[in-house]
Amino acid sequence: VTDHAELLGEVHICRTPGLPGFDSWTCRIYRGSPNIAYFLMNVRVSRANPIRFAFCGALGIYCLEAALTPWTEIQLAAEAAYDRSSDCSFTTFVGYEWTGTQQSNNLHRNVIFRNDRTLDLPISFYEQSRPEGLWRELREQCSQRGDGCEALVIPHNSNLSNGLMFRPQNPDLSKYDAGDAASRAEIERLVEIMQHKGDSECRLGAGTEDELCGFEKLSFGNFAERIIPFLGDGADAASFVRNGLKQGLEQHAKLGVNPFKLGFIAGTDTHVGTPGAVDERRHVNHAGRGKAVLSEPPTGLQEDIEFNPGGLAGVWAEENSRDALFAAFWRREVFGTSGPRIPVRVFGSFEKDWQLCGEDFARRGYAEGVPMGGDLPAAPTDTPPAFAVQAARDPGVRGAPGTRLQRIQIVKGWLEDGEAREAVYDVVGHSAGEASVDPNSCERSGPGSDSLCGTWVDPDFDPGEHAFYYVRVLENPSCRWSAHTCNKLGVACSDRDSAGRDLFDVCCGSEHPRTIQERAWASPIWYTPGGSSARAAP
Amino acid sequence: MTWLRRPIVHFIALGGLLFAVKTVAFGVRAPLFGGVETTAAVVSAERVAELRQDWLARTGAPPDATVLAALIERERDDEALVREARRRGVHETDPVVQRRLLRNMQFLRGDSDRTPAELLDEAYALGFDRTDLVVRRRLIQKLTLDVFAEARAEAVSEDELRSYLQAHPEPFTRPARARLTHVFLSRDRRGDAVASDAKALLRRIEQADAGPRSLLALGDPFLFPRELPPHSEQELAKIFGPDFAERVADLPVGAWSGPVPSAYGLHLVWVHDRTPEQLPILARVRDRLREAVLAERSERALRAFVAALRARDPIRVEAAGVEASDREDAE
Question: Are the beta carbons of A147 and A115 closer than 8 angstroms?
Fold first, then answer.
């Protein structure tokens, strides 16, 4: 759980009678009218040059002082829940969210620390209002401190960045040079591809014709557009991860460094402290959005229709410990899912006639190729790269079996005459449309696979061009959370009288589908002409 | 309807809206520096109303009788601690209290040229040390920390550790684990033949009387390893699904068994060994355990301390319906 650094002290003051500021207007609004406070506090952190609330005192000193308490509690909680025994049963990381927002455009980052050597206080948007400042301060206050402090910065909700997340541009609007690109790539090695507030992989009409990008999309590009729709439609290409990766190739060709070399994870961001609660059937809502605790149980949908329960991050590591997991984050051997526990593993290689789908998939993968998140070596003259992929469906829980897999795809991005291109290939599995789900009963039917394994060879490989390859695993169709809830509420889309008008329109409207194809995304493997000078893990 | 566009109309409408919001949100006016009088051993009716209002503001619902009684009880405890702290003179010597009082006075007096000592004297004369909420919290905190420090001073004995572990085993218990090797037969690949294939394979290996590695080359590819280090039922369920995980607990050790169904097909399973559910060796959880013992001991000491204070110097409650005094319930 990564708390917003910007409000750690503020909220602590407002909830602790006796602290200076507890009686301030802002705090009274926070306690008395949470929905107004939610708006006020969010507007406050959306300014270009944010200033803390008056009750924080000169230079924000009271709020900074107050932030020490929750920041210490976060670290103690992380320590208490971390199993340091050889059982390795549970691992926690200390982390927080830097809630950088430029004019409502979401540049949020999660900051995750390798171990218990962390910052004295989180660097927030108030101290550093630009990501560049955050990276610099993390270098100076953490990694250069010499006591083993290390941090990763993970951009999230790029779909709400209004095209700012993957722009190779400094705050002074100058273009990235090699140094800028390197300093970003050094600390931003992962990106959140999916979460509660939508999918960030790609978007139809924003640099792609891939129909499967039409998944958990928001109709706005930042939160201002949500309130005032005519400002925009959220289709800015540079908000989406696939376009970011393509931009990365262009930058790499130009600067010799790829600033957007990002592995994939997914998260919840529902702010309820339940990071694994991503089941469409038991969606619990997003907390803190201005609804008082203990108020009436909500009627109708538990959540605004456009949001979703969020996703999960998967890691291939030697053991479940902070060091092993962080090292895997660093080498990007990770994957994200839109919720289901779909494990997926990918290796790439220039071996001829490569066939891994038998014995020893992983052992041979490491021996003969490179794992997901890595770089292909220099290309031999006559062999295109091959990619071996294995995935399994979510095994499910008692009474709720997971959905079967439909197919595995490879998304390739490459440069052609200096211009970024993309293509999507089917690797193995069934065709679209063979299986289906009844949105009224949520009964799934049709053929699917418990697990899939396949090898794909690039048919159009050009050893002289930059490229990336990432795997997408698709489930068969299943009900979206909203359909589960609407069915439970007795809404029948064939019968207008089955529900009140508002509820009927939300449940049965055409804006949000009643069924979805859940999925997993494995981190890309990159190819650089002449081979990559990949940095070793620290 | 051109009057609707006039700024003055907007001005008045917005003002009215703000007033309404203010009235609804903060029905009770909070005084500038709290409002707690600590001279009499009493939780005043006004204070009870505040407790009620705080709870409403914090949770969105008024406290029911049980909650209100608990809130009042805690207020009586706090009152007893504040009185004891003042009896010990903490309010006159503690630097945090003095800093707070000074800050209040500087705020009130602005750019006055009085010395800090003069300002402090004035603060005490005005009774801010009795009414300021921060001072009050600090007095409670100071006394609580003293009680805790005393309770923690005495070393924790081995006996205490052991009996605490016995009384609270759950947080420390390690679940049962099994170490196993399995051979996978894929339902995807074999379809309806998967059951007969699995039985045939099991028969073959039983006749050959071979060990756990004999079958490895015979199964279908599986995403996770064939040989697993010790896994608990919960961990197995994450890989194979709940049915498989549950069955493993009943399988014999040191023999091939199955077929065991999973989310993906059938498995022949060899359980190498099993670690039963167990309390950990004390040495491995000593630090966590000691912290738990000390926390429990501190809480107990504080409760006893407050109870003694209240027996000596009862705290009355004055409020409609909850009129009570410590003399009645202190026995």
Answer: no
CB neighbours (10 Å) of residue B260? 20
Neighbours of B27 (CB within 10 A): 11
Q: Is A451 in contact with B264 (Cβ distance < 8 A)?
A: yes
More confident residue, A402 or A69: A402
Burial of A498 (0-12, 13-18, 19+ CB in 10 A): middle
**Residue B242 contacts A, CB cutoff 8 Å:** yes
Instruction: Please state the ipTM of this predicted complex.
Output: 0.82
Q: How far is CA A59 from CA A50, A67, A506, in A?
A: 12, 14, 46
Contact between residue A26 and residue A55 where contact means Cβ atoms under 8 Å apart: yes
Cβ distance of A396 and B54 shorter than 8 Å: no
* Cα of B21 vs its chain's centroid, Å: 33
Half-sphere exposure of B128 (CA within 13 A, CB side): 21
Strand ranges for A417-489 from DSSP E? 419-429, 436-437, 444-445, 451-457, 467-475, 478-479
B62: Cα separation from own chain's centroid: 23
Percent of chain B with pLDDT over 70: 81
**Chain segment A20-37, per-residue pLDDT in tens:** 888 888 888 888 777 777
Using CA atoms, how far residue B159 sits from B163, B282, B285, B289, in Å, is 6, 11, 15, 12
For A294, the closest of B60, B241, B280 (CB atoms) is B60
